[in-house]
Amino acid sequence: PDVIRAEYLISAVRQEQYPPGDEPEIAFIGRSNVGKSSLINSVCRHRGLALTSATPGKTQTINFFRVFFKLSHNNSEARRQIFFVDLPGYGYAKTGRSTRRQWAKFIEEYFLQSSRLKRIYQLIDIRHPPMESDILFHQWLRRQGLPVKIVATKSDKITRSRMKEHMGVIARTLGIEPEQILIHSALSGAGRDELLDDIVQILLQ
Ligand code: GTP
Ligand code: MG
């Protein structure tokens, strides 16, 4: 399986602005600067598809991308379309209190409305234990019955020997098993194949 092509569609802050269609949709959330936009670019092998920045707070709207997948199974090849959704980060305090509340509202609306939402990848920086905002968001998604899965990002930033320990901390803090966590580096592309395989499982459902 691999991505053939990916294109930016639209930025939205309200439901009426979401693109039409019934293709499966995958959303990427996490703290500001955790690497959501970079991960989308890495999976799509398309630099500059989603805008990234070293300064937190780059993504401010709900950004939709159309991604064309090639699947090969049982000796046959199939093409599928899917939406990737890049979201603003949470846990970033620079914006004013009222802006934050509004932010929460339109993100919440997004998660509660979408019938085509098949997976939410919640990204956690592999170097640090999940913070309170990560835990609260994770619990909220689970309470809503939404299909959330954790991706530990920036794996190039720690040594292999420390990886296991860090994965244990992340898993324990969120109340999941370490084996359920995907690991990725947008810098090296490590873990990209596992992510693609995971996405394909969604497409084959
Ligand atoms: P917001 O849109 O502000 O919420 O941030 P984001 O989560 O979309 O993060 P973004 O992809 O913009 O990346 C933030 C910074 O982290 C950028 O400087 C990236 O180059 C860097 N970064 C992202 N992924 C990786 C990674 O896997 N490895 C390394 N070393 N740096 C990364
Ligand atoms: Mg971003």
From TrEMBL:
GO terms for biological process: division septum assembly. One of its GO terms (molecular function) is metal ion binding. PROSITE patterns: G_ENGB. GO terms for cellular component: cytosol. Gene3D superfamilies: P-loop containing nucleotide triphosphate hydrolases. InterPro entries: G_ENGB_dom, GTP-bd, GTP-bd_ribosome_bio_YsxC, P-loop_NTPase. It comes from the Bacteria. It holds the Pfam family MMR_HSR1. NCBIfam families: GTPase_YsxC (TIGR03598). Belongs to the TRAFAC class TrmE-Era-EngA-EngB-Septin-like GTPase superfamily. EngB GTPase family. This is Probable GTP-binding protein EngB. It comes from Acetonema longum DSM 6540. The lineage of its organism: Bacteria, Bacillati, Bacillota, Negativicutes, Acetonemataceae.
